[in-house]
Amino acid sequence: MLPSRPPPGLTPRQWDVLRTALDCRTDEVLSASALAETLGLARQNLREHLLALAAAGWLEYHARPRQPALLILTPRARALRARQGAHSVPLPGFPVLGEVAAGPPGVAEQHVEGMVTRLDEVLTLHEGDFLLRVRGQSMTGLGIFPGDLVVIRPAEVAHNGDLALVLVPGEDTATLKRWQRRGRTVTLLSENPAFEPMRYAADDVQVQGLLIGHVGSVDARRRP
C-alpha cells in the first residue's frame, strides 16, 4: 500500500492525485477526465495538480485541443508503485483506441487516446436532452434498430429533412420520422421502404424533439 504522507516536494492534495493515478489499473496511459471523475474534482482544478506533478517528474501531461488530455506515468512513478506494492483498481470508463478504417483497411494500432466514461464525452449533449429506446423497424435505413437508444433534444419546431420526434393523432407514444412539410400538410417519412409515408394536417401533429445522436448494439443487427 502507498504511504499516506506525500513524498518531498508534493502537497497532500497532489499526493492524493498521484496515489489515485498509481492505483489505477493501467500500465502506462490514463485519461485526465476519468481521473477527475474518480477523484470527484473539476477538470480545471485537476489540471493544476497534474501540471505540478509533471513539473516534479512524476508524470507526463499531454493536453491536445478538443481531445482528451492523457497522462503517462514516468519510470519514477511506476517504480514507486512497484516498490510499495500498490493494488490496482479499475479506472471507470472504456478506452478509445485510436481510429478504425471504414474504407480501405488500415494498420491497427493499440494506442489509448482516452477513456470514455459518460455519453456526453462522445456526443454533444445539452441540459434537458433525453434518451428513448427504439421500437419498430421504420428507421433501419439509418442504422437505427429496435432496442437502440436515440438521443433527443427537446424542440417544438422541425425543418424539412430533420429527424423529429413527433406526436401524431391516435397514438399513445411519439414516433421518430423524417419531417417534411408542404403548406398545411406534414409528411412523416420512414427510413425503410416497407413503411408508407404518414400524412397529417399540420395542426394535428406536434414536434416534441429532434434526433441528435444514437447508440446501438451489434446484436440488433444480426440476422438469423
From TrEMBL:
Residues 95-211 form the Peptidase S24/S26A/S26B/S26C domain. One of its GO terms (molecular function) is serine-type endopeptidase activity. Belongs to the peptidase S24 family. It holds the Pfam family Peptidase_S24. It comes from Deinococcus metalli. The keyword Nucleus does not apply. InterPro entries: LexA-like, LexA/Signal_pep-like_sf, LexA_repressor, Peptidase_S24_LexA, Peptidase_S24_S26A/B/C, WH-like_DNA-bd_sf, WH_DNA-bd_sf. Keywords: Autocatalytic cleavage, DNA damage, DNA repair, Hydrolase, SOS response. CDD domains: S24_LexA-like (cd06529). This is LexA repressor. It comes from the Bacteria. The keyword DNA repair applies. One of its GO terms (biological process) is regulation of DNA-templated transcription. Gene3D superfamilies: Umud Fragment, subunit A (2.10.109.10), Winged helix-like DNA-binding domain superfamily/Winged helix DNA-binding domain (1.10.10.10). Its EC number is 3.4.21.88.
